[in-house]
């Protein structure tokens, strides 16, 4: 794993999909009028005969994807997360999830990674898709995982929902990292508190672990790229004898990663205290500043540090996280 600040890679998803399609003629690409914004302009240029522009008709696009899958193709469907889940949910249920078809739904701009306000912020997409039978839900953390997840899901049975940030993506893991559809990853050891996270919250969580470690708190970090089916056994092993668990997600705390981990802990009988860092059952405003939104709605490195510090019962003032400045291009506009 690399040390922060992390280098970035431009359009890793778009390039990975093109690379996959070179060897897989059964892969087709659908776009809901967000071709460039979802990086599949690269696919359109490379394979125009396998590219379908479905327009701003996401419900119809999901039905088309189901029909294509019934004909033996593997459709990758692209739009922003809100338009991939909230808007066409009935079609996702009946045309894709219920018949258990191999459609890969790619939802970009998750959570507060968009300045577009409630109409564009997919703060509940994991909860929505996690509730669907047959649906696998994936939330990858960096450019290395993005490059690996595409070949990993192409032949995965049943439908997959993949949420990811677009544009310039950090490179957190080294090339030896191996993405898994079945196993959570204990990336930093530590037994005082275990920070369990997914997706684009991994860098902030790693920074929080460093701040806590400097203050004498052994903070472990677990990366959970697959939220459903959750690697319950792996998470329980990672928690082990920890005194506390904090989940961190760019999503509402209701129904997402935090809820999944809470269910696993409760059903196993683990008596470890848990707190959830995420969007606290509220809609967020729009903003041109990603760090402003993450600070206002409790997703900053400092919020992670403060939550862990408080949960451990520390009475003194908690350590302060260094100010983090977003890299240029990190906060992609609509």
Notable features of this structure?
alpha/beta; disordered C terminus; 12 helices; 20% strand; 334 residues; five-stranded mixed β-sheet
Could you characterize what this model shows?
The chain is α/β, with parallel strands linked by helices and 334 residues long. The chain has twelve helices and 14 strands. Strands 3-2-4-5-7-6-12 form a seven-stranded mixed sheet. It has a five-stranded mixed sheet with strand order 9-11-10-13-14, sandwiched between helices. The protein has a two-stranded antiparallel sheet with strand order 1-8. Helix 10 links the parallel strand 13 and strand 14. The longest helix is centred in the first third of the chain and has 13 residues. The radius of gyration is 19 Å and the shape is globular.
Q: For the terminal residues, how far apart are their CA atoms? A: 30 Å
Give the H and E element order.
EHEHEHEHHEHEHEEEEHEEHEHEHH
Strand-residue fraction? Answer: 15-25%
Report the helical percentage.
25-40%
* Count of discrete alpha- or pi-helical segments spanning 4 or more residues: 12
How big is the Rg? 19 Å
- The overall average pLDDT, rounded, is 93
* Oligomeric state, counting identical vs distinct chains: single chain
- Shape category: globular
Structural class: alpha/beta
Number of strands: 14
- Poorly predicted residue ranges: 327-334
Strand count, sense and barrel status of the largest sheet are: 7 strands, mixed
Strand order of the largest sheet: 3-2-4-5-7-6-12
